[in-house]
């Protein structure tokens, strides 16, 4: 993705220490950066281990010399070599890291290696890396340490580990599993005489003693195998970082003094004692200048862009904005052919109490089942209150106006974005470099110029509603999506309808908002719609009084439908083959034990096949059939993120329990990853489920994703603005128990979510966005894009895991399953679910007499998984969705 930064106001150069972070494509890097920034008040810059500027250039027309890492480092006070997939002995996996350990004399600077970085340091000084008997990912160990060096004043250390490989320095405790006397544990070995052991882990009997930390006895290099930044490492993690920084500073100061003696020996020969203060007074030299001398200047010049380059970048940026601006202009002002254009300047909104009226009732009043439609529905309890506090408060019916509603499509294989008109015809089409930048540009233009007057508490006023496929997400992390199969019907990778009329339920306070952003003329529609709803609320309250019999309720009676029954009876489930599935799970585990991944969310696509509806009755439209199936699904697998989407050639019926991300108009975001699943079965009680979900295996699965989500949010919101507000709590769903965590991010200087009951009842200005500058950069959107594809569907580290999964899933596209579904509100908010527990039907031109619904399912594979257990878990998830599809 191209990161485009807004120009900020110039700031005075910082006097804070500067640290370089070498990123080996890990999914926890930003947590380390945030921890370092917070615990030592440093500015940390990130550099990827394979940054091409440091490589000799093979392109003939680019004659520039590669940058020298040694020169580049002159600008920093210290380096952190981070974790990552793969092996320290593999150049591709460690890249620039391996050059750190070769630095000599004046070029030397302090380094902290973490995990892969630690392994890389050890290998550079004679150690070997080997696989462990039991990989350790997302597990917390009680680490034995020497209380010395970076462990001084460190109390009991409970630290999270994410590694499959270990460092062997040929220590007796490793080779013979014994030492002659306790002190031997802390002695260097013949194999690695310059490496002093600082910590060991004895927690896992099979693995024996695993080396946890080292320091180089002559150079300023330290390393730890565990993850000091994980949410489950205790506070000693930060203590170790501070200790490292102190050691690094001490080393730097000593070196500065020794160097400056050389530098200034002549003029000071007269005698005065040399101190840092004196250096500063006499020559105006800062401590860093003293260390790095003139080279710093040289480096600053070489890293500055040339004028031509800067101009090229600006032109490129503007070019990228051209097409999305054009699309936004057509949406806003029409195209003097078919598109009329609606400026969302005005929001018309009317409200009424919802009484006992359900989302489904309102859908039927507006006949959404008759044509294309989008419904984002929060499943409710029988008292019509949200299933879960915090999710499931709102439901949104996005009305598709036949012949008018515009849509955006994007196809990742051709990188084409299309604006389609009300008849689904292409109005404008172009190739874009970065579709998410294009959508951001469009949304910025669609933002109302003034905060709408009147009641604006609904989180959605209007905007883009739809989905993005898993493959659209892969693009953002530079993983090339699998190709479409030849006979596969073409489905857009992003499909959003531009919803201008909507009905929003607030289930918490039982209120309905009817809204339009179609300009002044649409007030009449709003008033008419609210009248219809108002009448229906009244009617429903009459028919649901105790005296009325259920059958007399015109809304909720389920009419007998022999055609639907016949259709359902013709259904046949086609499940992934267990032998094949289990052998793929084993392959996943092989990649894990070889250190290439910590957790892999392996998935497959199952099907339910029916005889086509029109084989039963020509009169029943397939849209209505989908609607009926959807109603069965929401009744039998009630979920906080149910969704019905009928657009283009797609029918999407979702019963997802999982929030991907939501953010309000001020940019406060929340992610709710789910990881850890127990199926409800006879004999399995809630207590049993709690016990299973409290096991290290399930907690490890969840922890990895929590750390991954923190990393993603830290990358956008920065240190100190990301908090875990719920860590691994068991939530009950219709057919499963799940382990759920909640991670919140609040932009710097913005108040967080509702804290008092009053704020919860009537969301105040900060939720309505009144206080947010309408031009403020939207961190919520950035976090949404930067977190694709959803981490709970990939595993960690994300990039390498996605590459592995692509291969193990037979280079088949996951498509809509595993993607995200929800809305981007014109006011700047958004809410998306992870597309799981979802049935998808794609209409195709072939004349098959079969109707095929695809239901993807899978689960996180870890080193502790059993192949059979994983298969059963996958089938359990499939069943939760397919059950309503059977009679
Ligand atoms: C892969 C699926 O679910 C994902 C995997 C889960 C797990 O491994 O426990 C739980 C929820 C989802 O993030 C699915 O439902 O198909
Ligand atoms: N988290 C890490 O850096 C892991 C390093 C290495 N890939 C291992 O699995 O041991």
UniProtKB/TrEMBL annotation:
Entry GO CC: cytoplasm
Keyword hit for Cell inner membrane: no
Domain Chorismate-utilising enzyme C-terminal residue range list: 580-745, 771-877
Xref: InterPro entries: ADC_synthase, Anth_synth_I-like, Anth_synth_I_N, Chorismate_C, Class_I_gatase-like, GATASE, TrpG/PapA_dom
Membership in a protein family: In the C-terminal section; belongs to the anthranilate synthase component I family.
PANTHER family documented for this protein: AMINOBENZOATE/ANTHRANILATE SYNTHASE, AMINODEOXYCHORISMATE SYNTHASE
Protein name, entry field: aminodeoxychorismate synthase
Organism name: Lophiotrema nucula
